[in-house]
Specification:
By secondary structure, the chain is of the alpha/beta class. The protein folds into 2 domains: about 120 residues, Response regulator (Rossmann fold, 3-Layer(aba) Sandwich), CATH 3.40.50.2300; about 60 residues, Arc Repressor Mutant, subunit A. It contains 9 helices and 5 strands. The protein is elongated, with a radius of gyration of 17 Å. About 5% of the residues have low confidence.
Length: about 200
């Protein structure tokens, strides 16, 4: 089981794509992989990703065009990080950012840096989510919901949380859905980011 939202990893290099997906899976994210621009758009239409790690030089439909279409579809709700091993000059990075990407990383990537950059963007997205007066308040959570959220924030999976709290995984899933509703967020990643931001405030 995953603890966070789904990261869409798009790269036509199978080894690099699997490597990046593995990085995020190791810290509790679900991942979806795509080798072409068309596959990215198809995957995004089936499930809104928490973030997209997008190679610039995808075949047929390149990363720039994919970014534009994702922005048209989701606005600023989905962070997009460009990754490139060829377009590495300053003007390439500037161009990618002007086209709508939130960040631009040059290959070879540092694993810790990539994770940190994506997490920062997820935190920012969660912080900017519109919330009603009754939503988006950690103090509306029950004691058990606080416990579940704290364990999510520590990187625990759904089955592990169930074991630690001596409840069923199905009950954990129910608590998570209630937490998302009370905080006014759409994903586990956003819930964790919002909780961390609230504690830091």
């Amino acid at each position: 089981m995953t603890t966070c939202g789904t990261i869409l990893v798009a790269d036509d290099d199978d080894a690099f794509r699997s490597f990046v997906a593995g990085l995020f899976e190791d810290i509790g994210f679900g991942t979806t992989q795509a080798a072409t621009g068309e596959a990215v758009l198809t995957a995004a239409s089936l499930e809104q990703p928490a973030a997209v790690v997008l190679d610039v030089n995808l075949p047929v439909l390149n990363g720039y065009e994919v970014c534009r279409q994702l922005r048209d579809r989701f606005g600023a709700a989905v962070p997009i990080v460009f990754v490139s091993g060829e377009r590495t000059e300053g003007f390439d990075r500037t161009g990618g950012l002007l086209l709508g990407a939130d960040d631009y990383v040059v290959k070879p990537v540092d694993p810790g840096e990539l994770i940190a950059r994506v997490r920062r963007l997820l935190h920012r997205t969660a912080a900017n989510e519109p919330r009603t007066e009754q939503e988006g308040r950690v103090d509306t959570l029950t004691r058990r919901e606080h416990e579940v959220l704290d364990l999510l924030a520590s990187g625990r999976g759904q089955d592990e949380i169930a074991s630690l709290l001596v409840i069923s995984p199905k009950t954990v899933a129910t608590h998570i859905q209630r937490i998302l509703g009370k905080l006014g967020v759409r994903s586990r990643a956003q819930a964790v980011a919002y909780a961390l931001q609230t504690r830091a405030a």
